[in-house]
Structures are given as C-alpha cells and as structure tokens.
Amino acid sequence: MASSMIFTDCSSSTASPLIHFNRRSSNTFLLRQCVGQLRLRTTTAPGRGCSLSIRCSSSPNPSNSDSEALAKVIDGKAVAKTVRDEITIEVSRMKESIGVVPGLAVVLVGDRKDSATYVRNKKKACESVGIKSFEVRLGEDSSEEEVLKSVLSFNDDPSVHGILVQLPLPSHMDEQNILNAVSIEKDVDGFHPLNIGRLAMRGREPLFVPCTPKGCIELLHRYNIEIKGKTAVVIGRSNIVGMPAALLLQREDATVTIIHSRTKNPEEITREADIIISAVGQPNMVRGSWIKPGAVLIDVGINPVEDLSAPRGYRLVGDICYEEACKVASAITPVPGGVGPMTIAMLLSNTLTSAKRIHNFQ
Ligand SMILES: Nc1nc(=O)c2c([nH]1)NC[C@@H]1CN(c3ccc(C(=O)N[C@@H](CCC(=O)O)C(=O)O)cc3)C=[N+]21
C-alpha cells in the first residue's frame, strides 16, 4: 500500500536508526490536512541518541521503565458506541412522531483510498443509527463548479440535513470557496467561517461545532473530568482541530495556551498543563518528560508507522508517546480507539441536531 511511514519505536530503549519513508501518502498527508503542519525541532538529548520528535524509547531509568501504568484509559470506542445508541433512540423517536429521517450527504472528490475508507465508515455509522446517507463521488479532474453544483443541490434538498465535503480536496480546487457554499444550517462539520466566528465569541452560539474537537470535550465530560479553572495546552493550531479545540476549552472556562511550530519552549509550557490536547500528526512527539504528573491527555494524532509484524504492514500511533505518558498521566486516550471513533459519533450527533432544528422537533 502506498503510505508514508516512519519507523517508530516507543517501547524499546535501544537506539534504532530513524528511517523515514516518503512514499507520498495518503494517510499522513491526510492527517496533516486534518491537524495542520507542526514540526517541533526538538534537539537530541545528549546520550539519548535518538530524534525525540520521532522515536520514543522508554525512560533510561530502569526502575521507571518497570513501573506500572497509572493512567486510566479513556475509551473512545466505548463512548462512541454509547453515543450512537443514544442517537439511534432519538432517530427512531423522531421518525415515529413526525415521520422525518435525518439525512447526511457526503461529497467525495477524487480517488484517494483513505478518503474512500473514511467515507465508507461514515456511511456505515449512519446506517447503524438509522440516519439516511447520500453520496456524490466526483473524479479527481472534475471542476470546482461541479463540486459547487452538488453542494448547492444538497443545500436545496429537504431530505438532507447535513452536508460534509470530504477533505482534502484536489489541489486545483479552492477549498474555502467550496466550504463557504455549504448552507450554515447544514454545516455539520462546523467548518463554515460563520460557525467558527460564533464559536470564538462570548455570548454567541455556533449552529455546529467541528466534530473532532467536540469529540475531545465529550470524552472529558463523560469521564467527569473537570475543565473549569484548569490549565489546558492545545498542541497544533489547525482550523479543523487545534484552533476550535482551544476555543471550546476556553468556553468551558479553562485557561488555554496554544503551542505551535514557532513556540520556543513547548516542553516547558506543556508541562504546566492539567489537560493536553495534541493534534499535530507527528508520531510520539509528546514525551513523558513533557507531562505534568496527573495530567489528562487527549491524543488526536492518528499516524501510520511501519510495523512489518502488523497485518497491514503498519500500525497507528498517536502524537503522544503512550508508553511513557501512561506512567505519568492520570488519564489518556489510546490510538486507535480514542478520538477517532468519537469524531464519527459527533458527526452523527450534529446531523441529528440539524434535523431536529430544521423540523423544530424537541
Ligand atoms: N470534511 C471532513 N470531515 C472530517 O471529519 C474528516 C475529513 N473531512 N477528512 C479526513 C479526516 C479524518 N477523520 C477521521 C475520522 C475517524 C477516524 C477513526 O475512527 N479512526 C480509528 C482508526 C481506524 C483504523 O484502524 O484505521 C480510530 O482512531 O480508532 C479517523 C479519522 C475525519 N476526517
């Protein structure tokens, strides 16, 4: 399979060479789109002999590497299932009382394998809760006008309550122009500038909140993790994860700092945080030493790294070095099975909310 992978070893303490495959991928590229570009040039610690931004080995202190995990696992897969069950009940209640079935339309442009997989998963998730799904597939070489045309026709279609334009779009298209065309009443991704603007303003309410950051906050809520008055650090400032995650945390009364590729001392700042949300797309970048004891960690990164013993030839790791972090943190999301499944659950939730709002159904 064509994928850009990085050999990453987070469990061994022996130095292994850093090998970086750059077979122009699908997955990593997608994640870069998703979380934005952030490369922290962490310098190699003397005697450690590894690039900290990529490799992640256990603590050199043997007593420490033998210690047990302290952190509670925040089970996104299980919470997503609970959320889907709740949505299923609401969807059927709505259908029974007013005869309306919520509908989600997905516009998929081009033939990226990963995008096709995501779209298939979203469709499956819709089916599992009784939401009707619509799909338009356009070729890689289709024009921006054709994409706009399908967006506009979904805007006018009363059986569609949510519209999602799968990102990334082919490079010859103007993403802003297309996202702006989605009716804000159907913008279940929450990417329309008016929704983001409202999210940023006190006393205003967006119609939709972007799914991944919403999923992060939902996990904190469902695990009864207090946000109010806490210090939070968001690593990454993308439009679709980092920035809205920081805005949401602030709305929940956390004191928020955003770390990005130009931040001078990311490790020191991150070490002050009670809550960390990492969304950068760099495998194992956040090391144990970055984490304040007892912190809560939400790992948005989904990074493929080569693993020849895995069935697919790769496995997925987060931005946070899990083996190190789970010895320091009080709670942590795994990858996979953390934020990813919540993203899709929040998309279904936004679609249900939209259908209820459009039909004035409580
Ligand atoms: N308009 C738009 N909206 C999106 O929300 C959007 C998008 N474009 N483009 C692509 C990204 C990526 N994304 C994911 C959703 C779920 C998982 C997910 O469920 N992952 C599983 C892993 C599944 C596996 O094993 O491959 C997990 O983390 O457990 C991952 C990634 C939504 N995105």
From TrEMBL:
Keyword NADP: yes
Top-level taxon: Eukaryota
SUPFAM superfamilies linked to this entry: Aminoacid dehydrogenase-like, N-terminal domain (SSF53223), NAD(P)-binding Rossmann-fold domains (SSF51735)
Keyword hit for NADP: yes
GO biological process: photorespiration; tetrahydrofolate interconversion
Reactions mediated catalytically: (6R)-5,10-methenyltetrahydrofolate + H2O = (6R)-10-formyltetrahydrofolate + H(+); (6R)-5,10-methylene-5,6,7,8-tetrahydrofolate + NADP(+) = (6R)-5,10-methenyltetrahydrofolate + NADPH
UniProt GO MF annotations: methenyltetrahydrofolate cyclohydrolase activity; methylenetetrahydrofolate dehydrogenase (NADP+) activity
Keyword annotations from UniProtKB, A to Z: Hydrolase, Multifunctional enzyme, NADP, One-carbon metabolism, Oxidoreductase, Photorespiration
Pfam families xrefs: THF_DHG_CYH (PF00763), THF_DHG_CYH_C (PF02882)
Similarity-based family: Belongs to the tetrahydrofolate dehydrogenase/cyclohydrolase family.
Function: Catalyzes the oxidation of 5,10-methylenetetrahydrofolate to 5,10-methenyltetrahydrofolate and then the hydrolysis of 5,10-methenyltetrahydrofolate to 10-formyltetrahydrofolate.
Annotated protein name in UniProt: Uncharacterized protein
Species assigned in the record: Arabis nemorensis
Higher taxonomy: Eukaryota, Viridiplantae, Streptophyta, Embryophyta, Tracheophyta
